[in-house]
Design a protein that fits this description.
The complex is a heterodimer. Chain A contains 20 helices and 23 strands. Chain A is α+β, with helices and mostly antiparallel strands. Among the domains of chain A are: about 200 residues, D-amino Acid Aminotransferase, Chain A, domain 1; about 120 residues, OB fold (Dihydrolipoamide Acetyltransferase, E2P), CATH 2.40.50.140. In chain A, helix 2 crosses helix 10 and helix 5 packs across helix 6. The longest helix of chain A has 14 residues. Chain B is an alpha/beta fold. Chain B is globular and about 65 Å long. The chains are: A alpha+beta, B alpha/beta. The interface between A and B is medium-sized, with 30 and 25 residues. Chain A: Keywords: ATP-binding, Cell cycle, Cell division, DNA damage, DNA recombination, DNA repair, DNA replication, Ligase, Magnesium, Metal-binding, Nucleotide-binding. Chain A: InterPro entries: ATP-dep_DNA_ligase, ATP_dep_DNA_lig_pp_1105_fam, DNA_ligase_ATP-dep_C, DNA_ligase_ATP-dep_cent, DNA_ligase_ATP-dep_CS, DNA_ligase_ATP-dep_N, DNA_ligase_N_sf, NA-bd_OB-fold. Chain A: This is DNA ligase (ATP).
Chain lengths: ~525, ~350
């Protein structure tokens, strides 16, 4: 366990993403194959079958430490983590062990078949040979919940670095319901996987918010405009007579949108569309809330399919006839897209996002003012000559949103509410990125529906990293769009800014935490509207 | 003991703090009083506004530095003073230089107020001396079995190792520590073979006070607005905790931050403070220190103050002591308050 404990310590001790990824990549290069496999499993939420109950674990630990059980129970909420509490109260170990991670997992796997007294003796024997960090990790193997500030995405990045595999290929490989007992490292990570090739998406081209007057962009005829839809950005892929739907969060969501299964009938193999998933009814989007109901669940009940049907609103063509189209000018890709979707029957649930005709920036500004009526957030501007780049690039694509006073932030702390909502988490602290760190900048406690509060509460309970009295630190994972009335400078706040009336405008399940806004974005807003 | 029963207790708990009716004085009071006996110079013990102060001679310079012109009388450790009917003496608490436990005797009944204390000899302040008594008013800042300090030498090794790594990786190590006590304790442990130690103004001010009273502190370089790191290759910056976050430290380029405190035992606190490295080092007694002290001094009445008093007194009661909680001004103290570290 020493190598794994050292890895854990390095990840845990650093607030820098680059250091964490480097440590993990180093481990993926050097650790024994089976330990690597288990590390992937643990960091992607899989864990060995529970060998002993936490009740037994508490009793045995208190007994071994010579303390009454209640004292351990009282210490637990202070520490916030049972595995850590136990590691801290146990007397020092009398020996050491050179066994690796998978040895201890196998050790635990044998326990359920043994009589309780033997099981206890084995656990105590393990504690007596592990140092404090190793003990904490050993306990974690039993209690579960290996959340240590490494997202699946970061782990995938580290694994890609260590193996030279493509990250999105790896992301796909690590999906599904494998366990280290059903697959080995070679098969899971390294062996050729034609399925991954077929489903592989292109990196999304992300736009910036327009930060200048539109008329500084040059001649209107060099630009196309279209609605900025308020849905989930996605890619629809048809290859080998199969279809795949990826969200911008690089999550494969094919099964969540059965409506799009008929894309296979509508499009030839070798087609990749970029567009927006929208809940759609009576020829118009239903709003983000309807769509949101669809995102959280892996399987979709029939009633939900009826109440919140989804379409794919296409606005770009990335692959056609198996050929990469991204180098072509936007106008050409648009023409080909229009042709590909011409005469598409409604029941294919595929639509072409229309271009907005305009001949002056003032004219477009007037159209944009009516975006709400069109169920859009504003307009998108794309230069007619622009290729489809990867990542966020400035210059050729701009989003020109109606209301600039929103920011996408990561939830980092949760606190329960009062009265009727005492059993729910309703008060949240949000952070934006400051380099590799998350900088808290606002608290908000309104804006979600009761159903959403229930859902996020259940998630908070499962994903609590630490407790501080009533406050829980949660895994930085969920992104929320925070709306506010004003922003001003505040030296009292660590972030240097304070928001007026911040509230949760929506739960951005489509966005990974890494794509939340940054402190610089906040400062820019401060400069612009403060 | 029977003789004492009829009298009022040696010490009582009032809204101004711990009070001795027989001597008409208070110990570490939090409201202005006529006569205050002060255990040590930390702000939660030594407050301004009292008419007369009494403290150890070793604590006096810091008290004067922090409280300005006060009417301060001093005693040596172990020296007795008669105040009214009571006999008082000060005994080393091992917490910070000059810190004391205060012993109060009245008609053969002995009470001891611990103030803040630490049982491990840090080689720097006067080592803790257990004082036999009938009633012991003890701090219990870390009165939970999850708090057990590694030996100081072990933590020192970790800190110096981190300093080494920082230099190798081109990062400036910035170590946070409370400016009275912890900072000077660290100064003695930091390995000058690696580089010089640059101190923040708040720490350097305390250093000067302690040096002036004859304490041997290793050399330091005071940080000023004109300090350039390039003139001090391999340097470690020693700063008060507040300077770790915020813009102060940023001007020194790429940093690695560390914090030395007992709270760093808990991963959650470490992460919430968002320092790169947490080092477990406290100027307070850990779980074993508290329990061993209570066993050793033979007191039958224990009053707990600060920290997890409820849990700690329940534990003591079950262990056969007559244990109670001292009412304090601040309840709901959080884990990052004041000097409690
Ligand atoms: Zn103190
Ligand atoms: Zn104190």
């Amino acid at each position: 366990m020493k190598a794994f404990a050292a890895l854990f310590a390095r990840i845990d001790q650093s607030t820098r993403t680059s250091v964490k990824v480097a440590a993990l990549a180093g481990y993926f290069r050097e650790a024994p194959m089976q330990d690597r496999l288990w590390t992937i499993a643990l960091f992607s939420g899989r864990r060995p079958k529970r060998a002993v109950t936490t009740r037994q674990l508490r009793e045995w630990a208190a007994d071994h430490a010579g303390l009454p059980l209640w004292l351990l129970e009282e210490s637990y909420p202070v520490v916030g983590d049972l595995a850590e509490t136990i590691a801290l109260i146990l007397p020092p170990a009398s020996g050491g062990s050179d066994h690796g991670l998978s040895h201890w997992i196998a050790y635990l796997k044998d326990l359920p078949n043994l009589p309780e007294e033997t099981r206890k003796a084995r656990v105590l024997a393990a504690w007596d040979r592990l140092d404090s960090t190793e003990r904490f990790l050993f306990n974690k193997l039993i209690t579960g919940g290996f959340r240590i500030g490494i997202s699946q995405k970061l782990m995938t990045r580290a694994l890609a670095e260590a193996t030279g595999q493509d990250p999105s290929d790896l992301a796909h490989r690590l999906m599904g319901d494998w366990t280290p007992d059903t697959v080995d490292f070679e098969t899971l990570v390294l062996a050729a996987d034609p399925q991954a090739d077929a489903s592989r998406p292109y990196p999304f081209y992300l736009s910036y918010a327009l930060d200048r007057d539109a008329d500084t962009l040059g001649r209107p005829q060099d630009w196309t405009a279209e609605w900025k839809w308020d849905g989930i950005r996605g890619q629809l892929i048809v290859r080998n007579r199969q279809h795949f739907v990826w969200s911008r969060g690089e999550e494969l969501m094919t099964d969540r949108f059965p409506e799009l299964a008929r894309a296979v009938d509508a499009l030839p193999d070798g087609t990749v569309l970029d567009g927006e998933l929208l809940a759609w009814e009576n020829h118009a989007p239903m709003g983000f809330n309807a769509l949101q109901k669809r995102i959280g669940r892996k399987t979709v009940p029939r009633s939900l399919l009826r109440d919140a049907p989804v379409i794919f609103m296409a606005y770009d063509l990335l692959e056609w006839g198996g050929e990469d189209q991204r180098g072509l000018p936007h106008a050409t890709r648009r023409d080909r897209l229009r042709a590909a979707l011409a005469d598409m029957p409604d029941d294919r649930n595929l639509r072409l996002s229309p271009c907005i005709a305009f001949d002056s920036w003032d004219g477009l500004a007037r159209v944009r003012a009516g975006a709400r009526a069109a169920h859009a957030e504003g307009v998108m501007l794309k230069h007619r000559d622009s290729p489809y780049l990867d990542g966020r690039r400035k210059g050729d694509w701009w989003k020109w949103k109606l209301d600039p006073r929103t920011i996408d932030a990561v939830m980092i702390y949760a606190q329960s509410g009062h009265g009727r909502r005492a059993n729910l988490f309703t008060d949240f602290t949000f952070a934006v990125w400051d380099g590799d760190d998350l900088m808290p900048f606002a608290k908000a406690y309104s804006g979600l529906t009761d159903a959403e509060f229930r859902e996020i509460s259940a998630w908070v309970r499962r994903n609590t990293q630490q407790r501080f009295g009533p406050v829980r630190q949660v895994t930085p994972h969920h992104v929320f769009e925070i709306a506010f009335e004003g922003i001003h400078e505040s030296p009292r706040h660590k972030s240097g800014v304070a928001l007026r009336f911040p509230r949760m405008a929506r739960w951005r399940r489509d966005k990974p935490a890494s794509e939340a806004n940054t402190l610089d974005d906040l400062r820019r807003m401060l400069a612009a509207c403060g | 003991m029977i003789a004492c029963m009829a009298r009022s207790p040696v010490l009582t708990f009032t809204e101004k703090g711990i009070y001795c009716p027989a001597g008409d004085f208070f110990i570490d009071p939090w409201r202005p009083v006529d006569r205050a006996l002060i255990t040590h110079g930390h702000a939660d013990h030594a407050r301004p506004g009292h008419r007369r102060y009494l403290a150890t001679a070793a604590a006096a310079p810091v008290l004067r530095h922090r409280l300005g012109r006060i009417d301060l009388d001093t005693v040596g450790y172990g020296e007795t003073r008669r105040i009214g009917q009571a006999t008082v003496s000060f005994h080393p608490a091992g917490h910070v230089p000059g810190s004391a436990q205060i012993r109060v005797e009245l008609g053969g009944e002995i009470w001891v107020v611990s103030g803040d204390y630490k049982t491990e000899n840090d080689g720097f302040c006067e080592p803790f001396e257990p004082v036999a008594c009938h009633s012991f008013i003890t701090e219990s800042t870390f009165g939970l079995p999850v708090f057990r300090w590694p030996r100081q030498s072990e933590t020192a090794k970790r800190i110096n190792g981190w300093w080494h790594t920082c230099i190798a990786e081109g990062l400036t190590p910035v170590l946070g520590a409370y400016s009275l006590g912890k900072a000077q304790r660290l100064l003695a442990l930091l390995d000058r073979g690696i580089g010089p130690v640059l101190t923040h103004g708040a720490i350097e001010a305390t250093n000067q006070v302690l040096r002036a009273q004859g304490l041997a502190l290793p050399d330091t370089v005071a940080l000023t607005p004109d300090t350039h790191l390039r003139d001090h290759p391999g340097a470690l910056l020693l700063v008060p905790p507040a300077a770790l976050s915020g813009s102060w430290a940023r001007r020194f380029g790429p940093l690695s931050t560390g914090f030395a405190s007992g709270w760093m035992q808990m991963r959650g606190v470490r992460r919430r403070r968002s320092v790169d490295r947490g080092f477990v080092m406290s100027d307070h007694a850990d779980w074993s220190g508290l329990n061993e002290t209570i066993r050793e001094i033979g007191a039958e009445n224990i009053y707990a103050t600060h920290g997890y008093t409820e849990i700690f007194t329940r534990w003591l009661t079950e262990s056969g002591y007559n244990a109670r909680i001292v009412p304090t001004e601040f309840n709901g103290e959080d884990s990052e308050s004041g000097n409690a570290a």
